[in-house]
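chain below, 605 aa
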Amino acid sequence: MLRRFALGCLVALLSLVVAEPTTAKSPSQRKLVGSPAEYAQNAEVLIVYQPGQAAEARAAADQSGFEVLEDYEPGSYLRCKAKPSVQAVAVSASNIAAKAMVRFVEPNYVVSIPEPAGPPQPAPANVVPRTAIQATGKTPNDALYDKLWGMANVRAPDAWETNTSSDIVVGVIDTGVDYTHEDLADNMWINVNETPGDHVDNDNNGIVDDVYGAKFDGGVGSGDPMDDNSHGSHCAGTIGAVGDNVLGVAGVNWNIKIMALKFLRASGSGTTNDAIRCIDYAIAQKQSGVNIRVLSNSWGGGGASVALREAITRAENSGILFVAAAGNASSDNDATPSFPASYDNENVISVASINRREELSWFSNFGAESVDLAAPGGTLEGNREDDILSTVPVSQDTQDGLQDGYSAFAGTSMATPHVAGAIALAWASPAHESKLPSQIKQLVLDQVRLLPALTGKCLTAGTLDISFLKDGAPSINVGPFVYAGSNDNLGGGFAVNGDSGSAMYVLFGSAYQSNLQYVGEGETPDGYHGWIYREDYPNAPFDFLLTEKTIGDVGYYRVYVRPADDSTIPFAWFCNTLRADELTINEAGLSQLRSGALGKLRNGE
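prediction:
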């Protein structure tokens, strides 16, 4: 991600100029990660040593006032705590950072489930949004499926017409997963090299009975990643609750394998050290032949951990994508990074949240350069139907009106597993199964549904859309937004995503969000082939035709229009759309809209 690297370099350069106009940092200061306050707030430190110098680092740590709690060889670091005699941890950390065998020192940051900050914000004025997408396609018979608006929003039913299952293992790094849940048990990953319940480490990986995954707490690994919070099970259900089994809900993948990787405690918090252990466990399983390719990470906080970033790099080198929640602080990650979503690794996919009205959720972090895309995450505005329904451990659901074992949450935490599940489904497609991780990532980003509300809020300006996985789905992407300018009081804006039909109009002083229906292919009067989408306003339907290929040396798409109720009327050229937000409007096409469907719309019909 050159975009993130360049931004990081600029931020680093500016910080040196602003913070140290006359004095450069010493080598030991450059190896000291984190502020004095962060060392005071976190009980432990990580001392990362040069390869092969663990013994020397241990001796230096002891001399500098640290008690070594463990030596984590895969990460080449010591997890330590300050001895009671140490008055200022940051000073001791600075002292050991000066040692030649030490690469860097940082706090063992406490991270957690991201909590929303501040009250819900009102919807923007002068916007008339649709209440929700009404998706068509293959649907499962699960009892609560009609409440899963997020699945309709990502166009999962379209994708399900071709495939509903994935042979890929997805690791859920979270509070654990209820592997006994009626809607999750059949889709749990099983460690075939471990004998359940025999209290023996059969696969010799240092963890006893790690049948469904592993739990890490204080550097200690165990084989029971049972969820004691509900957050992890909720994320797992969105990725892969069993579909079409009459029970409960359905995940993006009706059949899949979910590996439970628990490091967040019942309180919802954990440490970067234990998160690193989860990542490395997944890597080790992949190296042993397990087909794990995606890690779902709905957590964040702490500072910029170099040790954690290096663990994500190890996952990247192993061909594993790292999907991460952008955060729930309503803030700009370009200006104030949120980790782990803001790491510049190529395998990181940062996910914001949209609500049911296809607006950026009031709580969601954003970032034109540092957040990749959005996905359904709910609203937290008091209407639980706008939140994301999924699986939770039985008897941990406190809602009325839903059966035990299911609950509705909201956050970028809920958006993230939509994307993780979508990646697994895409990677299982025969058309994409041979793609590299970078290619799968780019595929999903290229196929987003463009939303005006996301312009300037994320890199793609779009939300997750997996309708491209349907056999025969159109594959053009027009937009992101073009301005028609003003022509009397009838001018306005027009934007459409040709892949999905998501559209927005600025007409007669009001903004409208809509979802055009794909109805087939067609030809323009001047011989261009394209895809036809219908806007079915009551008593005034009309069709848009979006050209399949770009036209001319500049490389624009052409948009045509005709009344939908009379196919004998030829399409009229409406406008040319360029990705650079430029537009050439044709008066004949505009006139047809004025006198036809949009004329009636203006008159309130």
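The chain has a mean pLDDT of 82. The chain has three domains: 25-108, 165-387+407-462, 482-602.
thats it, cya
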